Amino acid sequence: MLDIGVNLDHSSYLEDLNAFREEYQQAGVDGIICIASSLEEAQKLITICSPYPDMHYTFGCHPHHASTWQDNHTQVLLETFKTDSKAIAVGEMGLDFNRNYSTPDEQIFAFEAQLNIASQSNKPVYLHERDAFIELTQRLAQAQLPKQGVIHCFTGDKDQLKKYLDLGLYVGITGWLLDERRNQTLVDAIKYLPLDRIMLETDAPYLLPRNIRPRPKRNHPKFLPYIAQGVAEAKNVSVEDVIIATKHNTQALFF
Ligand SMILES: [Zn+2]
Predict the structure, then answer these.
(1) 236 belongs to a structural domain
(2) How confident is the model at residue 123 (pLDDT cuts 50, 70, 90)?
(3) How far is the CA of 111 from the centre of ligand 1 (A)?
(4) For residue range 144-203, what is the model confidence (pLDDT) as tens digits?
(5) Do residues 170 and 199 lie in contact, with contact meaning Cβ atoms separated by under 8 Å?
(6) Into how many domains does the chain fold?
(7) At what angle are helices 158-166 and 133-142 packed, to 10 degrees?
(8) What is the CA(6)–ligand 1 centre distance, in A?
(9) What is the distance in A from the centroid of ligand 1 to the CA of 113?
(10) 154 Cα: distance to centroid of ligand 1 (angstroms)
(11) In this structure, what CATH number is given to the domain that contains residue 65?
(12) Residue at 111 is within a domain
């Protein structure tokens, strides 16, 4: 199994990274993709992940941080993707008109810049969307993306899912699927998500699967098997099939 969504820059993980890694490996997780939300965080991930061949990272700017985007960042990203084989996707990038920590104009500017970077460096995009579905999908439809990408932490409905699939994207599923208070839309939608387009992610330390007993304090990539199991049940297929397909998908897109 490969966890495509870990927010590694969390003190509880960094205190003992070797132990952190052993724990997820023992749970059958062979590797993780760490999410960079800003260039500053991305630079940190380069250092943190360098001793570990099974840790990779995205490199880019989250819509929340779009106001920090500067013209020279394009050069930094292009250079990184050219020289650093552990930087495997542009992102986390996207549009989030729910909280607007950066203005919509700033978000669109950073988003378009990163679409260009993805196409120039032949890398997939690692996408975030909240309350910006139409704007995001229209812009994606016009972009020239050689590798497409993944919509991470998908929580939408069947129509949104279909649109993302039509755009050629993979779809990241988190522990949201196991949250009975708010998962009904996703449980319905996932029936239309083919196995060859699914990826698994914990979004650790957030989105702890709610069915773990005793309940841990925070999420961890070692809990990825719970999400694989949830996908298997929602799609009525075997967990082995989910594990094989999602690993294959992740390797096909990123490695
Ligand atoms: Zn996100």
Answers:
(1) yes
(2) very high
(3) 14
(4) 999 999 999 999 999 999 999 999 999 999 999 999 999 999 999 999 999 999 999 999
(5) yes
(6) 1
(7) 10
(8) 11
(9) 18
(10) 9
(11) 3.20.20.140
(12) yes
